[in-house]
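Protocol step 6 of 9: fold each sequence in the batch and record its structure tokens directly after the sequence line. For illustration, a two-sequence batch is reproduced in full.

Sequence one:
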Amino acid sequence: MAQNCDSKAPVFNKPKVELHIHLDGSIRPETILYFAKKRGISLPVDNVENLIKLCCCDKPSSLTDFLSKFQHYMPVIAGDREAVKRIAYELVETKAKEGVVYVETRYSPHLLANQNVEPIPWNHQKGDLTPDEVVHLVNQGLQDGEKAFNIKARSILCCMRHMPNWSEEVVELCKKYRDEGVVGIDLAGDESLNCEAYPGHRRAYEEAVRCGIHRTVHAGEVGQPSVVKEAVEVLKAERIGHGYHTIEDDLLYKELLKQNMHFETCPISSYLTGACDPDYTKHPIIRFRKDKANYSLNTDDPLVFNSNLDADYRVAKTYMGFTEEEFERVNINSASSSFLPEKEKKDLLNRLYEAYGMVKSSAC
């Protein structure tokens, strides 16, 4: 059952909030081709159509296959100052066109600095950025985009499960740039790599808790409910990235419902990575909807999925029984669970209440 990404009138043509989108999974194909030419990097394709075929998942596969797509284009962007700043700016422009009024984008400063980009046969070029410089450049791009397109954009810095020695530097960058647009920390990557075996992640999250840095963790996407439990109990996660397999542990799921834990769900992503049953009508999001769980709808990596936010909303409406009322509830929950300071969060919620024709007291 494939997703429907046809160009049509938006399914939900009102202001939206997006909390789970990877900056390096949202790059425009045209931008990749531009920097390949500018930097003298020879790609095996030379036009947008073929680049999309190279970089995109077009049928359900595996998370491993999905992650392999990044090596095709990341060496073109990583380590280049102009490229890093530009992709941040362009993401804000794209989100504004999709009707998003607030976005939190996430990325690994180390990967965009080109510190762990695997060499590919047609490129051995290294960049010369530090993770600190990457964060500064992304902040600049997002801030320029905010001014140009009248939306609010913030960022989350990712630790990578396979690189625990990066994590303590990531939390230090969160602390350094917390007043310049960085609102939280994330842990992404292979869920089989638990934090007991890699204490660098635990130390970073303990420091985040100590300093009041907001925390989200990729967990329960393809991993077992135990990964979600670790994220909540050990890393003190305030939100869960994906979290679909949480429902396989009924006690854990009910406890997280009581806690009003926020799940950052990504319908098309979960279909194409094989994270869930390929039949959308059996998706865990339907359980979240019926249980009035606290969750959001997000794109995850729209470049790799050749998708956009409206396509995820269309899937939710077509196959998961979503109504206009549920879309509004989801976006209010998204705003409420954002990592914005309380004053800015209140302003964002008021913007949604006004746009949805709600009175504040009846919103949730």
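Sequence two, same batch, same settings:
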Amino acid sequence: MSGVGAKGKVLFKPQWRGNLAEYVTQVAWSPDGLLAASSAAGEVVLWQNGSLVFLLPAGLASIDCLAFSADGKFLAAGGQDGKVRVWSILNSPLSQGGLGGIYTLDNAPQWVDKLSWSPTCNQLAFSLGRYVQIWDADTQTVITTLPFTNSSILDLAWRPNGENLAIAGKGAVKVWNAHNWSDDPYLIDTPSASLVIAWSSDSKYIASGSLENIITVSKYGVPTPWVMRGFPGKISHLTWSQPLPNNAPLLAVSSRSGIAVWKKEAQDRDGWNARVLNLHDSKVRALAFHPHSLLLASAADDGCLCLWLKAKQVGQILKGARDGFSCLTWDREGKHLAAGGHNGELIIWSESMRGQGFG
């Protein structure tokens, strides 16, 4: 299930492996080290200390989005049946009954394929066709409904400081003020439909990948964005590194089987320059920077999960999904990496002593 890099350095070693009934759609770590996973068969499971607990069995509609609240008290899942399910996770081991109530928001026939928790409070944003609803888990009420009007919701992302919620759709990214939802949104124009968006962890930059194979990067509040072109296909994933000393963080982008890592020049007028990472020979399905370093993980249909040292060269290739990987996620400390596969594989790797200090 794992390989060693060219210099013999083992960054991560296998810890656990299991299987769900079908394609793993999402994996997510809680702040307390619980791993949740969902599948196209409708499963939602929790992993803790080597055991799986099934919150939803196979046989229902596909679960397509999954996320823990910032404090780890709630797990939300949405999917093709239009339901948003929210479990209360109590502060005790699962084997001792660490699950509380389940709240179900029934929005059928709308398909819920995007959801995200606020980083600063227990408010959940989720897509409903051309709208986004915000549900407060503490009061168990919907506090607002935000219209995109001329487009289905294609992506949504909270600003890491909790001040704003960005929503992507046709021709724009709209950014709402989380302290006054009734204010008109701030508009970031995009060349065509914005398919995927991501905020930098310092809340200064927001990147958008458009239908026309273009990326725009905006310094929030500055009206003129940087524009990056020349990608071979639609932008599928965006991920930001940790902040760099005296500069913007790195931005990694996947398009088809390719990955480009963009670095901002010291002067704003000089824009961003990219280096291309070539190894995958089929579509990249997931891309994520380590939370505390420049180690970049990429997973693809070719069955390779690559760990790129300093987002430059391959340090290790992990395997274990015969027909390809579908998703991946780091835990909060970056000591564990989980990934799902097309055939239901669920795999966890843990940091190796030989891999410490990978930059």
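Proceed to step 7 once all outputs are recorded. Observation for sequence two: The two ends are 23 Å apart (CA to CA).
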